[in-house]
Structure formats: structure tokens, C-alpha cells
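Entry 12.
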Amino acid sequence: MDETYIKVKGEWKYLYRTVDKSGNTIDFLLTAKRDKKAALRFFKKAIGTAGEPELVNIDKSGANTAALSELNESADTSIEIRQCKYLNNVIEQDHRFVKEKMRQAMGFKKFHSVHNTIRGVELWRMLKKGQHVLGDDESPVALFYALARWRIELTAMIKILFYYCAVYIVRST
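Predicted 3D structure (C-alpha cells):
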């Protein structure tokens, strides 16, 4: 688990992201602040998406440590916290691709614009990593409904669906 920053209308906003040890994206959350409350909200969201982890690698951020400690106490969980700068390299490398797309966008004026863009970029990264691969028996329509379950905004899904329909048509001809 790690966070990175994105500038929106001259102010820094924080993108919390988590990946598993294979590098597959588990969840992400864009927040205005980098504090215990935001970290706790992200951990609860990630646990709701992927289930409770046994171990979480984090950097030396006090907010992340405090949020995980509170989560362990309040929910009677036993998530092991491992703070090591070099064990977070998988997610640090994964940040590169998201940050690159954000630079190409040349800045954002509104929070909801960057939020929707990040959702599309994260979806694209997940597809590129093979997290949602079209199988031989799956159609683009099946992919569309699978993505809807991932709570992705409709506009991002339509763009991805059109891309996969084009790829599907080219492959089948």
C-alpha cells in the first residue's frame, strides 16, 4: 500500500493505491488530504474489495500506521504491519504508469475530473496487466458486465468496451 500525489488546480491531492505481491491492482482512492481518516477510509474500501490481508507493506507514513492500528483494534483483526522502504518497490514501480498518464493530461482543474480520469487509467492498467482478460468464451458484452461489477464509471466502460470490440473484430477477421 502506498500513496502518491497529483496536482489539481494548484493543490496536491493524494492517490492511495494498493497492489498484491504479483503487482495486480487491488484498489485505489483519491482524497483531498493525507491523514489518518483518509488512510482508514482507504483500508476499509480495499478490504471490502479484496478481503482482509494477512500482511500489509507500508512506508514510514504515520497516518497509515495509525489507521492500520485503529483498524486492528476496532475490527478485532490481526493485520501484520511491515514498514520497510524497499519492500514497497512493486507499488512504487506501478505508480510510474499512472503518473505518466497524469502528466500527459497536463493538469486538472476539478477534483471530479481527475477522479474520473484516474478510474479510467487504473482500469486500463488492470486490463494491461491481465486482470480482466477476455477469454475464448467471453464476448465484449460479458466484459462490459464484468466491469460494471467493478463500479467503474459508465463513460470509462464504454471507451474500453469500444476498444475491446475493435480488437475483437480485428482478431476475428
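Annotation: The chain has a mean pLDDT of 79. Residues 53 and 142 are 29 Å apart (CA to CA).
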